[in-house]
């Protein structure tokens, strides 16, 4: 293999073989449009207590500061839409947390993709990212033609909606680049109308400090009393803006066994949640992202929902 086109095709074919939904590639450069948007968002304190969002401002906008000599950002999507969901009348957790922690699952696939690149193409330096580093993954995925950023600020595609994770490989290899797709939200405001805490303050702008996911996962202090009764039974994360999005009619169940829920999870009633012990928490969420909120955080959230 020796041409940009061959390298690009080989990487995309391997990404598909590893189970990724899709793969798009864009040139590693400064994200001009995102700079003022991010600055404005931070200045309005829409990140709440997520102070880490203020760190590494420059690195968030320029991948060449994360990887020396970076030439390409390879963006990847991995589906997590479940076959079965929790019953209606129970405390709910975000669908992305049903199975094992996605960080580990995706990191392993990214390592395999990196190994493939080294073996097939040669000495290529790069780093893998799964939302735990200063990378604006939605912006890169949109730039790489994998979808458009919807009014709820999630990446959307016409074919499969928005229930997928985004990851990146930033490499010092020049590849063929994809073009962005057009926005297909139109006049729809389903996500804005449905958000019970009015976190989508205007189309395409989410005030993170008002989001149910922020309160139930990121916020370490007490949840403000004025939001009592507005969480619609969400105990960890929230999928409302995605659930109501018309494009998610096209979501198809994932084929990743590691994302299948613990058998006990789907049958848990409100009473089970209210009486959950630390042992049950450890058993059901042993490898899940729910561990981020810890047992005490989950108990706090459930108390708040009563």
TrEMBL record:
Q: Which PROSITE patterns match?
A: 4FE4S_FER_1, 4FE4S_FER_2
EC annotation? 1.17.99.6
Alphabetical GO CC annotations of the entry are:
cytoplasm
- Positions that bind cob(II)alamin: 60, 131, 155, 166, 213, 238-239
Q: What class of enzyme is it?
A: oxidoreductase
Record-listed tRNA binding positions:
220
Residue runs in coiled coils: none
Q: PANTHER family of this UniProt entry? A: EPOXYQUEUOSINE REDUCTASE
Q: HAMAP family from the entry?
A: QueG
By what name is this protein known?
Epoxyqueuosine reductase
């Amino acid at each position: 293999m020796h041409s940009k086109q061959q390298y690009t095709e080989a990487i995309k074919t391997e990404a598909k073989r590893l189970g990724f939904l899709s793969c798009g590639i864009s040139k590693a450069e400064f994200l001009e449009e995102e700079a003022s948007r991010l600055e404005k968002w931070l200045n309005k304190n829409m990140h709440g207590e997520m102070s880490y969002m203020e760190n590494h401002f420059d690195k968030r906008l320029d991948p060449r500061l994360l990887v020396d000599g970076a030439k390409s950002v390879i963006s990847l999507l991995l589906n997590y839409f479940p076959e079965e969901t929790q019953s209606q009348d129970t405390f709910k957790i975000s669908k992305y947390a049903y199975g094992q922690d996605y960080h580990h699952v995706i990191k392993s696939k990214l390592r395999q993709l990196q190994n493939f690149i080294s073996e097939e193409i040669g000495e290529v330096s790069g780093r893998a990212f799964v939302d735990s580093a200063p990378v604006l993954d939605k912006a890169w995925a949109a730039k790489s033609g994998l979808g458009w950023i919807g009014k709820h600020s999630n990446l959307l595609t016409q074919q499969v909606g928005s229930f997928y994770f985004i990851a990146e490989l930033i490499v010092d290899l020049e590849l063929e680049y994809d073009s962005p797709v057009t926005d297909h939200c139109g006049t729809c405001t389903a996500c804005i109308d449905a958000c019970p805490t009015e976190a989508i303050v205007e189309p395409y702008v989410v005030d993170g400090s008002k989001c149910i996911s922020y309160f139930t996962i990121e916020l370490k202090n007490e949840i403000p009393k004025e939001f009592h009764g507005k969480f619609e039974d969400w105990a960890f994360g929230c999928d409302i803006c995605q659930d109501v999005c018309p494009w998610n009619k096209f979501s198809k169940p994932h084929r990743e066994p590691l994302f299948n829920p613990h058998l006990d999870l789907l049958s848990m009633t409100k009473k089970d949640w209210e009486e959950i012990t630390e042992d049950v928490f450890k058993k059901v969420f042993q490898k899940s992202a729910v561990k981020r909120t810890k047992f005490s955080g989950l108990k706090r959230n459930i108390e708040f929902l009563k």
